[in-house]
Specification:
The complex is a heterodimer of chains A (about 120) and B (about 110). Chain A is mainly β. Chain A has no helices and 11 strands. In chain A, strand 4 and strand 5 form a beta hairpin. The chains are: A mainly beta (about 120), B mainly beta (about 110).
């Protein structure tokens, strides 16, 4: 049971380049999330998905797109990277039911992105 | 506006003492509140959850209190150890919501 995995671990981009971050979970969770974490600002939600084929905007969606073609995968795309997107990106997943023990989110190890 | 506030200043304590971290929120009515631990270079890891109708929750050396009138949660680590040094995040979930709102976290240093 790998839990939540993210690739790549680290990436350097030039302004204007594009890339895709991959998140995979093997816990059969319905909900998946993409966050960015910046110093002093905590985790901010970019996009989320409540099931295969569905996505929704979070708090800071501009400049990002997502897709959830398979239940276990959630992809985050940057079409034209900007220095303001330099951050650490975390993926997380959660079960649907808000019963005892099912509410918590499981996080991946993060992807560090530097945009020059 | 809606806010979650945690002490931005790091908390330094001596080994064996009790560490107390604070989480305050405004303009939210959370169904429950969670505490996560985050080590440098790693993703957050769940520690404890407390519901709106619970006053206190314990797990080993950890204790969480939740005061919905004060809009505050306190997170205690008793008999602290250097291995407890990390950043601790509080997080709110609303009734029927899909999203969790995270605070910025408080860094804890436990000196041997």
């Amino acid at each position: 049971n790998a839990g939540v995995t993210q690739t790549p671990k680290f990436r350097v981009l030039k302004t204007g380049q594009s890339m895709t971050l991959l998140c995979a979970q093997d816990m059969n969770h319905e909900y998946m999330y993409w966050y960015r974490q910046d110093p002093g600002m905590g985790l901010r939600l970019i996009h989320y998905s409540v099931g295969e084929g569905t996505t929704a905007k979070g708090e800071v969606p501009d400049g990002y797109n997502v897709s959830r073609l398979k239940k276990q995968n959630f992809l985050l795309g940057l079409e034209s990277a900007a220095p303001s997107q330099t951050s650490v990106y975390f993926c997380a997943s959660r079960e649907v039911k808000r019963t005892s023990g099912k509410e918590t989110q499981y996080f991946g190890p993060g992807t560090r992105l530097l945009v020059l | 506006s809606q806010k979650i506030e945690q002490n931005s200043e790091a908390l330094n304590i001596q080994e064996g003492k009790t560490a107390t971290l604070t989480c305050n929120y405004t303009n939210y009515s959370p169904a429950y509140l969670q505490w996560y631990r985050q080590d440098p270079g790693r993703g957050p890891v769940f520690l404890l959850l407390i519901r709106e109708n619970e006053k206190e929750k314990r797990k080993e050396r950890l204790k969480v209190t939740f005061d919905t009138t004060l809009k505050q949660s306190l997170f205690h680590i008793t008999a602290s150890q250097p291995a407890d040094s990390a950043t601790y995040l509080c997080a709110l979930d609303m009734t029927g919501g899909f999203k969790t709102i995270f605070g910025a976290g408080t860094r804890l240093f436990v000196k041997a």
